[in-house]
Amino acid sequence: MSEELKEEIDRLTQKLHSEEKHLLAGAIEQYWNWTLFDYSKNILTYTPNIPMETELREAFYEELTAQGRSIETITSVLNDLTRHRIIQTAPHSQLAQTPRMFCIEWKRN
User: Fold this and answer.
1) Is 42 exposed, middle or buried (0-12, 13-18, 19+ CB in 10 A)?
2) In a 10 Å sphere around its CB, with 0-12 CB exposed, 13-18 middle and 19+ buried, how is residue 88 labelled?
3) CA angle (44 as vertex; 40, 47 as ends), nearest 5
4) CA-to-CA distance for 64 and 83, rounded, in angstroms?
5) Residue among 89, 97, 87, 91 nearest 31 (CA)
6) Residues ≥6 apart with Cβ < 8 Å to 65
7) What is the rounded distance in angstroms from the CA atom of residue 76 to the CA atom of residue 82?
8) pLDDT at position 109, please?
9) Residue among 55, 54, 42 at smallest CA distance from 84
10) Angle between helices 54-66 and 71-84 (to 10 degrees)
11) What secondary structure letter does DSSP report for 33?
12) Taking CA 60 as the corner, what is the angle to CA 64 and CA 68, rounded to the nearest 5 degrees?
């Protein structure tokens, strides 16, 4: 990353800290220079501490069935959700609309 970009990020996070927006500033400080590849590797290390709710699993099963997905695909998706409990949305793999939306999506994870 360029030194100019790093300086801009530093100015932004200092401003956010001065406005008491520490969560957003901390998220940007921690992740601003991650590549999509680094991010992908990181999220797959997450393992939930509690089992997935039966109702959530059933809701995904019903929705995937309604979409006409094969039983193999449904099984694969449900197994992956059970192991990692990660659902990707657009802000996770492209620029978010605003810094606030970035933080909202980041905090949900």
Assistant:
1) exposed
2) exposed
3) 150
4) 18
5) 91
6) 74
7) 10
8) 47
9) 42
10) 150
11) T
12) 5
Give yes or no for a contact between 9 and 32, defined as CB atoms under 8 angstroms apart.
Answer: yes
pTM over 0.90: no
Whole-angstrom CA distances from 5 to 32, 38, 88 are 10, 19, 27
Nearest to 41 by CA among 2, 86, 90: 86
Place of tokens 């099984």: 75
What DSSP character marks residue 20? Answer: T
7-59 pLDDT, tens digit per residue, is 999 999 999 999 999 998 998 898 888 887 887 788 778 888 888 999 999 99
Q: Quick one: tokens of 79? A: 């197994």
